[in-house]
Design a protein that fits this description.
The complex is a heterodimer. Helix content of chain A is 37%, strand content 11%. By secondary structure, chain A is of the alpha/beta class. Chain A folds into two domains: 232 residues, Alpha-Beta Barrel (TIM Barrel); 98 residues, no CATH class. A six-stranded parallel sheet of chain A has the order 5-6-7-8-9-10. Chain B folds into two domains: 145 residues, no CATH class; 138 residues, no CATH class. Helices cover 39% and strands 12% of the residues of chain B. In chain B, the strands form two sheets. Chain B has a five-stranded mixed sheet, covered by helices on one side. A three-stranded parallel sheet of chain B has the order 2-1-3, covered by helices on one side. In chain B, helix 6 links the parallel strand 5 and strand 6. The chains are: A alpha/beta, B alpha/beta. At the A-B interface, helix 1, strand 3, strand 4, helix 2 and helix 12 of A face helix 5, strand 4, helix 6, helix 8 and helix 9 of B. The structure holds iron/sulfur cluster (SF4). Iron/sulfur cluster binds next to loops of chain A.
Chain lengths: 428, 291
Amino acid sequence: MKESVISKLKVLAESAKYDVSCASSGTTRRGKDGHIGSATGWGICHSFTADGRCVSLLKIMLTNHCIYDCAYCINRRSNDVPRATFTPDELVELTLEFYRRNYIEGLFLSSGVIRDPDYTMERMVKVVRELRTTHRYNGYIHMKSIPGASEGLVREAGLYADRLSVNIEIPREENLKMLAPDKDHASVYQPMRYIHQGFLESTEDRKKFRKAPKWAPAGQSTQMIVGATPETDNEILRLSTKLYNVQGMKRVYFSAFVPVNSYDRRLPMLGSPPLVRENRLYQADWLMRFYGFGAGEIVDDAYPNLDLEIDPKLAWALRHPEKFPVDLNRADYEMILRVPGIGVKSAQLIVAARRHSRITGATLKKIGVVLKKAQYFITCGEISEGIAPKNGIIGDLHPDLVRKVLTQKRPTSRRAQSPDQTTLIFPD
Amino acid sequence: MTVFNYDSTFEGLLTAIFDAYSRRQFPDVLLPSPDCVSPSHPAHNAFGSVSSPSLPLFSDEIHNVLTDSAKSGRVWRALLKKLPKEVCNMLFYGWLSEESGVDMMLFRYIRRVFDEPATTSSVATDFSDPDILRVKQLALKVSHECEHIRQFTRFQKGGDAPGNDTTTGPADSYGAGATYFAPVSPRYNALPLAIGYFRDRFRDQRWLIYDIKRRYGFYYDLKEVTEVTMEDDAHLVAGKLDEAMMAADEKLFQDLWRTYFHSMAIAERINPKLQRQHMPKRFWALLTELQ
Ligand code: SF4
């Protein structure tokens, strides 16, 4: 491999980094003798960049030349940026040499559109085919499907890739067309349908013949840019629910809009990317996938946007004081899970521990349940000592007061933390 | 006061339990003792670096436990009958924490398991018992450290030294067959737990992963993994392979990786606190991308 690859790598990594999905999860595949690689199922983060994001896959573009002109994209045709193109073989070698050093979990391959969608897709498929066949690579592969590529190529890609994705980018079609004149929802949904069909067919086949090949076993994902256009959180969460249900999406990512082309008047002027909103959307998505919440419980027409000041679970609890306090000695697991500040782990510990003896404030401290938020929402039946805060629990307290207490910042912590920097990705 | 001397290995601990039940005599104190170290149990498993505490002044009885895999195996199988497999593994994870006093903690824990009549609820969730709670906490820390090893271990490719024959490997895949070296320095003795991952994933390349703190490691020769200690481990302890030992293209790939890593950060989102929270500073010295 030549030194000149360094400058290509720099250009093509810079171009790929705004795609936020990085997960290498969804496939569990043991290693094979004579092959290199495995997939762990949960996905490993091998490093963290200075912005605190996980580096799991080699996230890279085959080329950043593009015939399209999407307003939100750094690689749009009309931008004067350095351009580069990898040969498929260079990318194969780079992936393997990185993988062998335990730098990465695998490859996340995307590309600008050169000549036409099929021509581009063919070159991408060549990379993943070479990896899987000639080089017996058994690690994770996530490949972007180019909007407008033909079904045959999508089908071939799914034979080699673990996950395929097409980014929807802008939730409302009229807004997408305004910012990306070469795209519309049909060009995005069409490949999504190919992927979903391929996945379903292979699942069916494997029920009949155990040896039938797996096809994109980690399913598909997509991404929406948040804050480039005026859609509400209500619209965003409803669309993502639909994508999970109808297209069999495994993951919907949200990407806070980074104004890379600030000269374009169609885009809003933002001081900094809306990271808090992005974080709240992930929390809401998390509540919907793992905590049994429906989109309508989190946002609705009356409250179309997520509260930026408090997490969506706390917001729900404060809107529903009638559901609290929750008695930790009696309540179902599902209800304990709805208590602000109590996550899956704590809820499981509580249910396990109460089989031995009654839960008291002391038990909770001992098993490490953090009470800062939870204390306002729980009792332990008649004995509540050590749990309820001095002034009582919700029911005695007005929700507005609880909100005020929980959002009060100690003066020292305010200085240490700038308001846009979130450290918590998921609510407990 | 009853004292059991043992070789400070997990097998030794299980043997001590076997002995205690067959002698109907239970120790108040477990002491690591050089008399009990058998050649088949190298010292890294022991509290090798911890100076052994001096013998209590008034001891009624001292028993020397001689580690015996038949006895320890019987105790382990008995545990597997009484406890779910994950809980048994948790006991071993707790052991690998190397926390001082963890041996006695595990001893009391295991005694409770054997002495209590089988009930519907497992002993393992009785967190009002401080031993049970502490072992669980330690096991969790060790398993996090194991995940950190899987995340942050970095291999360096060795050159064509003798014994580093690249022709026997499946050579048509880039980088196959060569030998890769990785120094690690985990907080707990968690490397053995991570070996399964490396063995499964890196099958067509040779590798050596070496714990530079405890001075032992594991070597994979394309067939099996063996535990190794090295007379001369200076080049690994330094954290970086000597240039003479590196493969010709190793430096290039290190540069490529550093370039990639730095290009991925988004300036508008810089958040060093979050970075350190996920990737604690203590790992940075051995991370290629941060060197
Ligand atoms: S098609 Fe993709 S690479 Fe090309 S301008 Fe649009 S978003 Fe950017």
